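Marked as duplicate of an earlier ticket. Keeping the data here for the record.
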Amino acid sequence: MSNLSSIIIDPQLLTVALISLIFLLILFSGIQKVPDGNARVVERLGKRHRTIRPGISFIIPFVDSIKKRGVVLDTYLENGSSKLSLIDSKGNISIAENRMDPKELKLLGKDNSEIYVDSVAYFKISDPIKAVYDISSLSDSFLSLIETTLRQEVGKLDGDTVVTSRDILSDRLRESLQAAATNWGITVFRVEIEDIRFDDEVSKRLSDARKEELVRRAELVSAQAVADQKVIEAEAEKKAKVLQAEGERQAEITRAEGEKQAQILRAEGLFEEQRLQAEAHFLLQSREQEGVAKGYSAIVEAISANSDAVIALEQVKAQIKVAESLGNSGNALIIPAEAAGLFGAVSAAIKSFEQITKK
């Protein structure tokens, strides 16, 4: 009995332990660990309360709860062939970027042509509370809005214009989707038109028209290329003529400068020649004047030394002139031999006097 009484646990202590365990379990149940790229919607007493983001959060047990049921958040992938739920069994709502790829739509253009349009939209859930409570079915509403917008926009265009208006359709579709999706807690990033095609008959006619257009453009390009080639050749010829004219002008300038330089050199040479001749003539005249002056000086000295001889010489010169005059006259005179000897003596005397005066 003593051994049994010793292992009996105090009831009060056991109660405290059980209460503590239950409290810990309740407390642990209020811890919420949200994976990255997801969010959870918290309801408090059955009403929307708040959104918890990735990480560890805490909710009040029995008061707060995670919204898991009655939520339809779907999107379509691979041209409407597969469906993806954006919320799992734990209430994790994907807030990453997703795409809505509806099936190809058959639409009518402005000219009643049948046009097949395949579009895709890229979006994300930016406000999970609005996406859960403010829209009953995300995928159906999204698809309906895409189809309505495309019908309106394609109906404004004819078949030829639709082919070249992908960017316009994409922008208008994105604007319409974003205007409506803002109230759904959805952010639309971009919308792309993957394909635009027609039925076989229209496609064939468009292909033929496109072929004719390409041929016409090729001919225009060819004609433009020929015209451009002619322009290039004309420009090249023009440049060649300009260069040739420039070369000729430069050659003329060079020749003129050469001729000018040659004339300058010839003028300088002629000036130098004339200068040297003038200097030589001046020196020659100076020497002649100097010789004349020395001759006059010698005569003056001779006259000063022997004045009678000069007088006799002048008399003899006068007689010689008289004799020459008589010889040139038409009357012949006979001069005696003695007179001829006298003239010879006189001539010898004159030469001797001239030699004296030179010395």
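See parent ticket for discussion. The longest strand covers residues 186-198.
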